[in-house]
Amino acid sequence: MTILHANKTARKYFSRTERRSGELEFSDLPQLLGAKVYQVLKTGAAISSFKYEPESSPGTVYHINIVPFQRLVAGLPASALLLAEDLTQTRQFQRLEN
Question: 97 phi and psi, to 5 degrees?
């Protein structure tokens, strides 16, 4: 499994710090996210969006969407698109308002 593109923010949050290349590898993804991407690739179906809170960063909250992106002739996707929206500040503002 290969990551075709990762923006600067994705590399910042998911890359291992010991890697010098700065490139994001599939194995860098947290196990839960990697398993969900694999599920989408094997089934060809998007999964419901969900909240993800990394164990390594308490208080950080992401809204995750994973959808099939490019389909092969056989109908299964050749790639998946993972979108992670950082909701940490939004949640903090909501807490302050209450």
Answer: -70, -30
Residue type, position 56, single letter: S
> Nearest to residue 41, comparing CAs of 78, 83, 81, 74?
78
Query: Is the torsion defined by CA of 24, 27, 31, 34 positive or negative?
Result: positive
- DSSP β-bridge partners for residue 62: 52, 86
The tens digit of pLDDT for each residue in 4-47 reads 888 777 777 777 766 556 678 888 889 999 999 999 988 888 99
Look-up of token digits 């694999």: 38
Closest residue by Cα to residue 28 from 41, 7, 14: 14
Predicted TM-score (pTM) of the model is 0.78
Residue 73 zone, left/alpha/beta (φ > 0; ψ -120 to 50; rest)? alpha
> What is the Cα Rg of the chain in Å?
15
Identity of the residue numbered 16: R
